[in-house]
Design brief:
Helix content is 45%, strand content 20%. It contains 21 helices and 22 strands. Helix 11 packs antiparallel against helix 12 and helix 11 runs parallel beside helix 18. The longest helix has 59 residues. The chain is elongated.
């Protein structure tokens, strides 16, 4: 941007003759190029520079002058000089006019035309202030003086504007450089802030040490939390002084002296509370403010090591579970033989009374052993849920005496069961575990005795309430809760209570699986569990079950074996356990059934090829060695003879065999161990034309 010379002059006077005088003075003294050329020849000198030509404008009152100045500024062609008379009746006088003109154009050069009797200089400056753009021209004025002022002030306006433009340019350069420096400073500040925030917010415990003394100059929050020391206790001290790292001298310091890179060196950290934590330590050389420092990073691996221990424990439990499942299956075969033979003997007429008593004791012992095998199968997860319609209040009421005996005399058991609860769809054995685990957990929370309150109610869960619990959902639910008056739990304990193997009990006093089992069972039942607790305020465990509109399943009535007089049927027995196979054959032949037997699917297919026309029913174990199990064998034979009746037996739960075939206990499924009456009863039902279809 450039400034051009400005020769625009405004004359403000109420006397028209004054305007004529200014035109004569400023416009008549124009030199022509011819005159300049003649002077150059006469005086043997270069022609002078052309004099500026003035543009003269007139205003007769102050307001008129203000309008012209305002318009000129707006159009980008301001006036350079204004000659203003002091007295201009009847409007503004010269001083007021000047004051208004400077408001519109502060750069305007003003010449005040005044007589000796007009305003004094002191009076003018008291109104207008001292201003370098103000000149006084005393009347009557000389023409040369006016012309000189016009030239000088227009030149001054031009130089002043050039200087101002240059100052603006310099100011812009200074501002740009200042902004650049400020940006660099801001970027440096942001870089420092990013490093500081990244260091202090880093979840990995970190510390900065002075090289040589190895004293801490800064530590982050994670380092403070891990060590238990305050920041003030750490700053200015070395790990050796604080006895922070047991292996520091022998491992870390030695490696630092040798100049060996330190990456994930395993050490033992001793906290302020004298707790040992396993950690991986890394040390990196860095430079801060031109000084060498060390950046120490500590990765706490205590929880990882604990998880590895838990994993090994879980793997061990899984192995034990598989072993338990195998033992339970084989044990069921043995119990089948024991119960079968004892029931055969009890059915013998004229058996001595002492023999009868012995057989009954054998049967009772076998029943207790069968219950043990069911527990083993549950432990190994081979016993899957068998949901049915359950009325929760009745179920709890039937078990109250057992719960009271289990919790002991120091704890008072109370209950408040709401009436009119809808039924739920639940596995009774699993439901029993939930009630028992929660009650025993409440008892253990009160070693000095207390009160356990069991309640049920129908709870409407709103969307707002459901939003407060991650696993909840809106709707109507049956709520079962167990409340104790124990010590309660803090937030850290509350966050881990459902973790497998987590326990607050002493070693060998609990497996840590009770609440984990409750959590899993609740999830299997499409519900959730909420915990309300606080230190010193006891705990409430509330389980939510969805209600069901299912109807209870009718129990199929098996015809009594003694009423079946037609046993003219042929049965193929497939059982890999020889003792069980011989027992079943003996029971069936004693009831006049024709029997073929096979120890596995391959042998059964051979028997089938020779006797398929007369075989009416297949009695097969589900789990057998060989090329096919019982289910696969039945499919092969049913494909050849669709009217074939099939009954399955197994020492495992029927739910484990999938949904490809619907197994119904007492109809087409006979769980081991079983009495001879159970066996003959299910066969009678299969062959009875009015019985339940197999």
């Amino acid at each position: 941007m450039t400034v051009r010379p400005n020769n625009r002059i405004l004359v403000v006077d109420d006397n028209a003759a004054i305007h004529d005088d200014f035109r004569k003075i400023l416009l008549k003294h124009r030199r022509t190029t011819q005159i300049d050329a003649m002077e150059s020849v006469i005086f043997d000198a270069p022609p002078p520079a052309p004099a500026p030509e003035f543009e003269l404008y007139s205003a007769f009152q102050g307001q008129e002058a203000l309008d012209q100045v305002t318009a000129a500024v707006a159009s980008g062609t301001p006036f350079a000089v204004a000659f203003i008379d002091v007295r201009m009746p009847p409007g503004w006088d010269g001083i007021e006019t000047i004051w208004n003109l400077w408001k519109a154009d502060p750069a305007l050069q003003i010449v005040v035309c005044t007589a000796h009797s007009d305003y004094s200089w002191e009076r003018m400056t008291s109104v207008l202030g001292v201003n370098e753009n103000l000149v006084i021209l005393k009347k009557p004025f000389d023409n040369i003086e006016v012309l000189q002022l016009a030239h000088a002030l227009t030149r001054k306006w031009f130089v002043t504007q050039q200087a101002r433009l240059r100052l603006d340019e310099l100011d812009a350069l200074v501002n740009a450089r200042t902004a650049e420096l400020q940006r660099a400073h801001d970027e440096l500040s942001r870089s420092k802030e990013r490093f500081s925030k990244a260091f202090h917010a880093n979840p990995i415990p970190s510390a900065i040490q002075v090289t040589g003394s190895e004293s801490f100059v800064d530590v982050n929050d994670a380092f403070v939390a891990m060590t238990g020391f305050s920041r003030e206790e750490l700053i200015g001290h070395s790990p050796l002084e604080l006895r922070l790292c047991i292996d520091y001298e022998s491992r870390i310091r030695r490696l630092l002296r040798e100049g060996v890179p330190i990456r994930n060196v395993e050490c033992e950290i001793s906290t302020r509370q004298n707790q040992l934590r396993s950690a991986l330590i890394s040390v990196e050389s860095i430079t801060i403010a031109g000084e060498p420092h060390l950046l120490m990073m500590v990765q706490d691996i205590s929880e990882r090591l604990e998880l590895e221990v838990q994993l090994r424990q879980a793997q061990k439990m899984e192995s034990v579970g598989q072993l338990a499942a195998g033992i339970a299956h084989d044990f069921n075969n043995l119990l089948t033989v024991i119960q079968g033979h004892s029931s055969l003997q009890l059915a013998t007429e004229h058996l001595p009374q002492d023999a009868v008593n012995s057989m009954k004791e054998i049967t009772l012992a076998a029943d207790r052993a069968a219950e043990l095998t069911r527990q083993l199968l549950a432990f190994s997860r081979r016993q899957v849920m068998r949901p049915r319609v359950v009325r929760l209040n009745e179920f709890i009421s039937h078990g109250m005496s057992v719960l009271q005996s289990a919790i002991g005399e120091r704890v008072t058991l109370r209950w408040d069961l709401a009436e009119g609860l809808p039924p739920i769809w639940a596995d009774e054995a699993s439901l029993e575990q939930v009630i028992l685990h929660l009650t025993m957990n409440a008892r253990d929370a009160m070693p000095n005795g207390g009160v356990i309150l069991i309640t049920t109610e129908l709870r409407e869960v709103s969307a707002e309430s459901a939003a407060q619990h991650a696993e909840a959902r809106p709707g109507t639910f049956v709520r079962f809760s167990v409340t104790d008056t124990g010590a309660g739990m803090d937030l850290s304990t509350r966050a881990r209570i459902f973790e497998p193997f987590f326990t607050t009990k002493e070693v060998n006093k609990g497996s840590g699986m009770g609440l984990a089992t409750v959590y899993g069972i609740t999830k299997q039942h499409e519900g959730w569990i909420e915990v309300i607790t606080a230190p010193g305020a006891g705990s409430t465990f509330a389980v939510y079950f969805p209600p069901t509109d299912r109807m209870p399943d009718p129990t199929p009535a098996l015809p009594d074996a003694s009423t079946d007089t037609s046993h003219d049927h042929t049965i193929l027995i497939v059982e890999d356990d020889g003792a069980v196979r011989e027992l079943v054959k003996e029971i069936l032949e004693s009831h006049d059934y024709r029997v073929y037997e096979a120890e596995n699917a391959d042998a059964a297919l051979v028997v089938w090829e020779q006797n398929s026309a007369e075989i009416e029913l297949l009695l097969t174990d589900m789990v057998m060695p060989g090329s096919a199990n019982g289910l696969e064998l039945s499919r092969l034979l049913l494909a050849k003879k669709p009217e074939l009746k099939v009954i399955y037996t197994s020492g495992y739960s029927s739910d484990l065999f999938g949904s490809d075939v619907k197994l119904r206990e007492g109809v087409n499924y006979l769980p081991k161990p079983y009495l001879s009456s159970k066996l003959t009863g299910i066969l009678s039902n299969a062959f009875d034309p009015n019985g339940t279809r197999v």
